[in-house]
Records
---
Amino acid sequence: MRHTTWKHAALGCLVVMGLAGCTTSPLGRSQLSLFSADKLDQMGQQSFETYQKKLPEVQGRTRQYVECVADAITEQVNSKDAPKKWNLAVFKSDQANAFALPGGYIGVYSGLLNVAENQDQLAAVLGHEVSHVLAHHANERVSTQSITQSGLSVVQAVAGQGGEQLATLLGAGAQYGVLLPFSRKQESEADLLGLDLMAKAGFNPQASIALWNNMKASGGQQPPEWMSTHPGNDHRIQDLQGRMASAQALYQQAKKAGRTPNCNRFRP
């Protein structure tokens, strides 16, 4: 009887933790957010400074080009809890990658410019990364990891003999049955939010399709989609195409409002 009581108490504790940190994403999806904005901003700053210490930065026309696109994107951010200032670094690296962190930190690897062939394709990447910040995906990811680890600890505490084996099995389930599909939802959400954001900034959203085709061509062999934290390229292209009509309408509105970025003039 006491063993069962402890199980119920432990599971109840986890449920309360989850409900206490329940929020909603910009697309209406329920999220788990257990950490304060200040804490996430601090984590973002620390991570950004770590990158700056480890990787050399690129200046000159390359930085001007990336900064031009980034500024156009972030100027369209009107969320009340979004960063008031965005900090940019272009890192010298062959990797085709970029990131945005809580607190308003954007990092772009110079190798990305070999795949993102023009300002519109680069805007698709930066719109996607900035959207991760606007949708509070970092808080969601850290919170999910925290509560999952707490759950595994509870299992080990209440299960007694065999608890370690059970926790191991649950850990595998968390990896392939809970956390990774959840992370794919984040990526898909950032794709759609980023598409709207780049269109509002005056970049042609159709370029996002060309970008992911380039990514597909340069990415080599991919793991099966169910084992990846990112949607497959074919899947994300299909989702982008499904939202393209509304994004094109936003793009036309931006052009009528005079938002026509000319960042290619800086491209080295």
---
Amino acid sequence: MSEQLPPMVCLDGDRIRAIRESQKLTQLYVAKVVGVTTDTISRWENNRYPSIKKENVLRLAEALEVSVDDLIKSEEANPEEGEESSEKPPSSRKWLLGLVFLIAVALGAVLLFKGREMAVPAVHAERILPAYAAPGSIVPVQIHLETEESMKGFILREHFPPGWKLIEASPPASSLDNEKGTARWIVRTGDSRKHLVYLVRVAGTEPLGTTAGFSGDIVANADNRQTPTSIQGQTSVEIGPFQWADLNGDQTIDDSEILRAYDMVEEMTGVHLDWEIVDTIWDAGGYRWEEKAKKFIPVRAEAGAASGE
């Protein structure tokens, strides 16, 4: 579609505003993605600019997560022109039109193939999730990033389970909708961060024994090519009465698990992950889940053995 657009494109401001408001996106967020001011976004939405550059409409479509066709004004055909075009062309013209059509199809196929061949992800993202999440508890989520030198910034979209609440992130989310379970981050050119992390509170009504899913994608601008790719790694957690650092769900945090948890906490810079409860459980030797209070209670190994826990 981008190859077919003219250098300047006419926008439908009313449609742009409707799409943005339906997705609960602010003008500030859209302006950051496109690389313009909020005043410019306002002028576009109020049809004060008859046309904008092709590059801007492509970035605008990416920010609103719609196709370019949804943003541009549709040209109504002139009735008189339509009547003239309905006249049956001579056979020679038919043959010529058919040849032009075949050439256009072949050229389009070549361009599409080359475009896919060139679409090499400039950013590789991998999600790390805990094995378990207890209802009402707070669990950490890590996204490891590997970027190419030619990367010119990217947008990362993350979808967490509906009903859960993102309470803290590093860097802070550029756009957050806890109702739909969607967060977006804009990472600018020159940002060499290796991790994107956040804390999410599990819905207190999640039934035990079920699983909750995560998904997401990134759009990287490498050499002016926008390439959407899915976030790799883990995509689900099991809902159970277990602490996030308890990898095997045996209601203890052993030495290997405490070391893994320590490494994760070290990487979760910028958010306030409760390390004290993990350390206390490890020192005690075990724990139990208090369903009503929605919290973990450390249990000494001797006390647990005597009470049969």
---
Amino acid sequence: MKIKMWGVRGSIPSPGPRTVRYGGNTTCIEVRSEEDRLIILDAGTGIFPLAQSLLARLPVEANIFITHTHWDHIQGLPFFVPLHIPGNTVRIHGAFDLVTQQGVEHVMNVQLQYSYFPIREAELKAAVEYLTLTVGVPVRIGDATVTPVLMNHPVTDLGYRIECNGKSLFFTGDHEPWRNIYTPDDPAWAEYQGLVAQRQAALDAAIGPVDLLIVDTAYTEAEYPKKIGWGHGTFDAAFALAKRTGAKRLLCTHHEPTRSDEELEQAFAEALSRHPDPGCEVLLAYEGLEITL
């Protein structure tokens, strides 16, 4: 498999001289199977430059897997140029939305209302298919298998394990490690602690040993206490997850949008100093990074 990072920033695009090395586009990852099947993880603003790169290889057949419908993971969808070209096929996969009680098609229905975008959904030129996923049920994309896994975020959020010819990766999307919402002096603490342990063990098993683990590391340990419940992780939590699941390589992403390149490197280095033996290769994601498994 070949992986390329097209967007590594969280929450909102942050272009400019302060982020030029790591990039300011929001989440988008290109995955190519050995048969060259195209799998796209999330559709943040990084999907626009990805789309430009695809125009030299028409027609396009793309499978876009949305982790969740927060704006920074879908804001690039209307600008995915292959949607507007006849002969292309775009399949959009995602979770059932418990709030709207609708499938992933609701995302495009809303985004392509004329009040928000000048091209209506009915005017798209490509063949567009919507597929609502079931947690734990694999989807076959040619020689690759994509399995959705429930993560921890304020809205339904799916992580994805992709396997192809003996190689594997896991992308968490936005994820906050499971935690006990009660204090130790609360009678409910012990019971809920057991539930937290069960959820974490189930997630670790679903991730399993992987060649590449891509994790939301938005915050530092010092920042996290003020961000509890926002649905994002830390560098330290990612290191622990990689070690528990036997990951061969850890890629830290979803960078805090206010962080400059230098501040990001400093936060990363400080976290690494607390984990001198992370158990695997650890990298900071940047736009344009390519990894072959």
